[in-house]
Each structure stands twice: as C-alpha cells, then as structure tokens.
Amino acid sequence: MPDLLPLFLTALLYIGLSAYFWRVLWLGKNAAAAPQSWEKAAILLPLLLHAWLLLHFVIQPDGIKLGVGHAISAIAWLTVLVYWLGSLRNNIEALQGFVLPFAALSLAAPLLFPATHTLLHTGQVLFKVHLFIAILAYSLFTIAAMHALLMAVAEQHLHSKSPAPLLQRLPPLLTMEHLLFRILWAGFALLTLTLLSGMLFSEELFGKALQLSHKTIFALISWGIYAALLGGRLRYGWRGRTAIRWTLSGFVALLLAYIGSKFVLEILLGR
Fold it and tell me: Are the CB atoms for 197 and 133 separated by under 8 Å?
C-alpha cells in the first residue's frame, strides 16, 4: 500500500488547479485574456510529484509492477505532460479543465486496482521500448479524444448569442481540427510502432509474431479505425463531426484493447 500523504497532496494540487481553471474559463470575466505565465508553471508541481509516485511504486527491486490502476495513472500523467508541452506553443489552455481532473481521479486507480504481479520479461530492452511507446500512444489518443469532445462542444455552441467564457479561449474550429489531426498522426505512428514492436517481441519470445488475443484484436481494430480516418482525411477531406465520431470510436476500441483486457485479467480473473 503506497504512502497516502504524497498521493493526496498531488491529487489536491490537481483538484485545486482544476477548480481555478474552471472558475476562470467558465465564470471569469477575463476568460478571453491570454493565460498568465504562472498558470502553466503551476502544473509542473503536481506533474513532478505524480512522476515520483509512478517511479516509486511501479519500479520495484524485483521488477516492474504495472497493474491496471498504475497503467491508468501513467496514461493520465503522460496525457498531462504532452498537453503541457503542447500548450507552450498552442492555444489549448481550455483543455486544462478536462485533463487535470482526469489526472486527479487517476491517482485513486492504483488504490482501487493495486498491482499484484510483477511483469514478466521486464529485463529485455525490446519489451521496455514496447511498453513505453504503447503508453505514450495511449496518452496521445486520450488527448485526441478530449480534444474531439471539446470540438463537439465548441461546434454545438458556435452560433450561440452568448458563448461560455471557455469557448472564448478556444482557437477557431479549423485550427482545432488541424491540431486534432496532428495529434492523431503522431498517435497513429506510435500505435503502429507499438504493434510492430509487440510482434517482434512475440516472435523473439514465442516464435510467433501475432497472437490473436482479446488485446491484439481490439488493438488492430483501433489501428484500422484510425487508419481509415486518416485515409479519409487525405482522400475525401473528412472533418467536423465525422472526424470526431471516428476519433472517439478508435479511442473506445483502444481502451478495450489495453485497459479492458488488463481489467478482465487482473481484477475479474485474478491473473
């Protein structure tokens, strides 16, 4: 059982920043103003504490313990990190209201679903590379899903006479759409590398490149959905609600591939 004090402190920092950003974005009179420098710097403190918690409790002397709870927490941490790096160059401050509460909630996941087994083959470099790329790909697609939801909200209120202050901080929908597809292309490249490295690892370990498990099938379905979306974008110029629906569909398949399979194996079946 992890020490609860740093965990609660990190969660409180995330929640406090979330409350501040929601108050400014939704209720603030100066919501359209540029974000202050301290707002971005403040996110670094819970981000660093969250990283310390992950390293402290995932990397054990006998190996890596990455259960479903820690996987969710790691994906949330990388989501905040990638968002924070992206916000240094892009006007995506409005995503703070979505990303930070997700990170705060993710800190409870290891308590609800503690890791009971050490991952096998963690001494192999290829497996570590595969694991890191996979979590980074999930984080990018998590950001893409949140971004797509925000686009849906913005589109719905596009013709409103009095749009919420949140929407006043958003860039134009066309700019948001371009950013969404940049995230999707990066995530798709990493997902492709995840599948390829997984095949190489499986070939090296089991002498078989592709094992049709629940995880593999849903990962391939997700890859196919994103490939179709990006292909449709290039060939037919897919955008708007079509892009949003396909983005969210691919994300659901990806959740079923990794988080869903780990939940069934670790929590329901106790493996």
Answer: yes
Q: Which residues contact 138 (CB under 8 A, 6 or more apart)?
A: 75, 78, 254, 258
User: Which residue type occupies 155?
Assistant: E
Spatial CB neighbours of 139, under 8 Å, sequence gap ≥ 6 = 75, 78, 79, 81, 82
- What DSSP designation does 172 have? P
Q: Which residue has the tokens 């909630």?
A: 105
Distance CA 55, CA 43 (A): 19
Give the number of other CB atoms < 10 A from CB of residue 182.
14
Per-residue pLDDT of the chain (271 residues; tens, 9 = 90+): 456 888 999 999 999 998 887 777 666 555 555 556 777 788 999 999 999 998 888 877 666 777 778 888 988 998 888 888 877 877 666 677 778 999 999 999 888 877 666 665 556 777 778 888 988 898 899 889 988 988 888 888 776 666 666 666 677 888 889 989 999 999 999 999 999 888 887 666 555 556 667 778 888 999 999 999 999 999 999 998 999 999 999 999 998 887 655 555 444 445 5
Contact 254, 138 (CB under 8 A): yes
Give the residue numbers spanning the domain of 263: 4-268
Q: Global pTM? A: 0.81
For Cα atoms 89, 139, 101, give the angle at the middle one, nearest 5 degrees: 80
Six token digits for residue 62: 């006998």
Name the domain count of the chain.
Answer: 1
Q: Name the nearest CA neighbour of 182 among 76, 89, 71.
A: 89
